[in-house]
Design brief:
The chain is an all-alpha fold. Helices cover 45% and strands 0% of the residues. 11% of the residues are buried.
Length: 122
C-alpha cells in the first residue's frame, strides 16, 4: 500500500490508529492506556494526545513500540543501502575532479621584494 498520496499528518494519524488498535486488541497487547503509559514510561497525557492526533516525539514512539513488543518492526523501516558495484565505484572515481597546483616559482619577484628606505632610520 502506497502512502504517497497522504499528508504527513494523515500518515501519523494512521500510525496512531494502528498502534491503538494493537494496544486494545486481545490478539495484540490487550492493554489499557494507563497500563501502556506505565509500562512505556511516558505520561498518560502524551499517550492520549498521540492516539488522538498522531503527534509524538520519536523517543516516546520508540518507548511505546518497546512496551508493545513491536520494536523489531523498526529494523525493516529503513532498508540497508545496496553496496555499489565495481563499475559504479569506477565511475564515481572518474567523476572526481583532481586539484592541479600552480607551478612553483624559484625566484622572488621584484614586486614582492622589500623596498629600501632613505633617511635617518632606514
Amino acid at each position: 500500500m502506497s502512502l504517497d498520496h497522504l499528508t504527513n499528518t494523515e500518515i501519523a494519524e494512521r500510525l496512531a490508529h494502528a498502534i491503538r488498535a494493537w494496544r486494545i486488541s486481545p490478539q495484540g497487547a490487550a492493554m489499557s492506556q494507563v497500563d501502556l503509559a506505565h509500562k512505556s514510561g511516558i505520561g498518560l497525557t502524551p499517550l492520549k494526545r498521540f492516539e488522538k492526533t498522531g503527534a509524538i516525539t520519536l523517543r516516546n514512539l520508540v518507548a511505546l513500540l518497546r512496551a508493545l513488543n513491536l520494536l523489531d518492526g523498526l529494523e525493516t523501516l529503513v532498508p540497508e543501502p545496496a553496496a555499489p558495484g565495481p563499475l559504479a565505484l569506477l565511475a564515481a572515481e572518474q567523476k572526481r575532479t583532481k586539484r592541479i597546483r600552480a607551478p612553483r616559482t624559484s625566484k622572488l619577484r621584484a614586486s614582492k621584494a622589500p623596498a629600501k628606505r632613505d633617511g635617518p632610520h632606514g
